[in-house]
Amino acid sequence: MVHFIYSLLIPFFIILSTSTVFSQDQTLKKYSPELQLLILNEDAVFRGHQFGDFSEKIRAIEKGILLNEDEYLLYEIEINKDEDAEIIYYLNKKDQITGFGLELLVQTSKEELLLYNEFNKYYTEKFGKPKLKTDKTLIWQTKMGYCIEMGETNKDGELEIEIEYIQAIPKKTCI
Q1: Alpha-carbon gap, residue 85 to 28, rounded angstroms
Q2: What is the residue extent of each domain of the chain?
Q3: I need a surface site. Which of 1, 141, 173, 174 has the fewest CB within 10 A?
Q4: Is 62:75 a contact under the CB 8 Å cutoff?
Q5: DSSP 44-98
Q6: Sequence-distant contacts of 110-115: CB under 8 A, at least 24 apart
Q7: CA–CA separation, 52 vs 145, rounded Å?
Q8: If DSSP codes are grouped into helix, strand and coil, which group holds residue 63?
Q9: Is 70 helix (H, G, I), strand (E, B) or coil?
Q10: Rg of the chain's alpha carbons, rounded to an integer?
């Protein structure tokens, strides 16, 4: 009798888990190819990686050009023919991920605004309404125990959108 019940439950759980994965993939597919390229997948915190993953996993998966590998891994990827992004993996002394960063280097304020608004919409759909840290910085507190901070900067005439994934200290909020 118990085996019969399990045989009925297994297909149910397979369908349930498949529909969950499908809905996650569908969230990302609603957005531009640029955002999809930068997020890559929704299976983990960022680009298929979790806090605590070792740098070997990143090196095996990441397709960008490795620019730095000292205290952090810095990759550059091409978003399109005019814009690049820098992907940063912050590491501890054990060579494990402690944080993630994404810097979008854009040519025009129009492109900056489009990407900023699209990331805002994506993160809000996924994590809920953000908190305003400053007039140009938003923070999302996730249920998974990490924060995402996004801001726009203009350094020496270069337009940038900076996004950081930060582990929240237990029982503390991001702000």
Answers
A1: 18
A2: 1-30, 33-167
A3: 1
A4: yes
A5: SSBTTB-TT-BHHHHHHH--SEEEE-SSEEEEEEESSSS-EEEEEEEE-TTSBEE
A6: 111/82, 111/83, 111/159, 112/152, 112/159, 112/160, 112/161, 115/34, 115/35, 115/161
A7: 13
A8: coil
A9: coil
A10: 18
Closest CA to 121 of 146, 150, 145: 150
| Angstrom distance (rounded) from CA 116 to CA 100 | 18
Angle between helices 2-29 and 109-127 (to 10 degrees): 160
Residue 46: pLDDT band with limits 50, 70, 90 = very high
List, for residues 96-120, the tens digit of each pLDDT value.
999 999 999 888 888 889 999 999 9
In the sheet where 158-167 sits, what is the strand order?
A: 65-68, 72-78, 84-91, 97-106, 158-167, 146-155, 137-141, 131-134
pTM for this entry: 0.80
Tokens 């609603």, residue located: 30
Helix ranges restricted to H, 85-155: 109-127
Give the three-class secondary structure for 95.
coil
Strand partners, 84: 78, 105
Mean pLDDT of 44-65: 92
Please tell me whether residue 136 adopts helix, strand or coil conformation. coil
Torsion of CA 40, 35, 98, 131, to 10 degrees: -140
